[in-house]
Structure formats: C-alpha cells, structure tokens
C-alpha cells in the first residue's frame, strides 16, 4: 500500500498503462450524491484526478467548469492531450497539499481516493492535514469538499472533524460496484460499501 503515497509510483503506472481507470466508483455510482451537493454551474476542483473518467462523465452530464489536478506530470500531459477539445476540462500538475490557487476559488472540491493515497505515504497524518487546510482555503463560503474513500468513519472523521476548518461533515455510503448483477450489497458490511464524506464549509449537517 505504501507505494500509493509516492509520485514515482504513479508516474510509472501511468506510463505503463495510460488507459482510463476509475478507482472505487464511476460517475453512475456517485451522481445522485454529487447532484445533491454540487451544482452544475459550480466551479469544481478535481483533486488527484488521475486518468479517471469522472470529470468527463460529469462534463457530459452538464457540469460546466472542472479544474483537474494531479501530482503526476505523466498523467496530466496524457489528459491534456485527451481532452484538448473540451475547454471546460483543464489539467494541471499540482500537489493537493500545496495548492497554487487563490483563496476562495472553488465552490466544490472532489477527491476520489486521493485522501486514501495520501494516507499510504510517509508523513500521512501531517499531509492529510495540509490537504484539508488547503482545500478549506480554496473553498468559497458554503463550499463543499466531496471525498470518496474506502476508509471507515471511525478512522476518517478524526481528520475531517477539526475545528480548524469548522466543516459540517455528513457521511454517506454507496454500494461497491458488483460484478454480478444479482448480488445484493449489504450496506451494513463495511467491506461492501464506499464512504462519501461531504464536508460543508459554514453549512449545516444533512445526514444521509
């Protein structure tokens, strides 16, 4: 797992396998919650975008402005080339723990698997705190940080429910995609769901 925290791992992975890959969930599994918390005309930052189709699928569904960042220069160059005809999807090489955007730049920040990858690396606790501080800084008032994770609330909430950010955090679950169409996911089983943490800046909790 430790390799997921290293830039060199991602550069090598994307060089070897440039085909689109979605960790955890495709847009179809997240669209209901995304549409609830993120408006189509919001300015969105996709943190740790990789070569996921999530931004493309959101764009096709009407989301108009999505800035994508990733720590891997390799994948950023690939995605700039792939989406050169879609002006609404921009890609930049950047570390989510040290964002180069002005304060209050975005209505929403989405991170699918990014927090989990950071937690695999060295200095993980400090780096997750840096990520949260930076996301809080670039979010507008009442902005939303939308996190997709395999981590259970007992672990992940300690990083998010921090008075430094004053976020209102609501926790949702979505069933893991199943290979078999007949399989009925058990949402009580931590291994059969992914967790969505919705951190609202200056908002109110809406438990789901």
From TrEMBL:
InterPro entries tied to this protein: Lys/N-term_MeTrsfase_sf, Methyltransf_11, SAM-dependent_MTases_sf
GO annotation terms (biological process): methylation
Gene3D superfamilies noted in UniProt: Vaccinia Virus protein VP39 (3.40.50.150)
Pfam families per the UniProt record, alphabetical: Methyltransf_11
Alphabetized GO MF terms: S-adenosylmethionine-dependent methyltransferase activity
CDD domains in UniProt: AdoMet_MTases
Keywords attached to this entry: Methyltransferase, Transferase
Domain Methyltransferase type as annotated: residue spans: 45-147
Similarity field: Belongs to the methyltransferase superfamily.
Protein name from the UniProt record: Methyltransferase type 11 domain-containing protein
Organism of provenance: Florenciella parvula
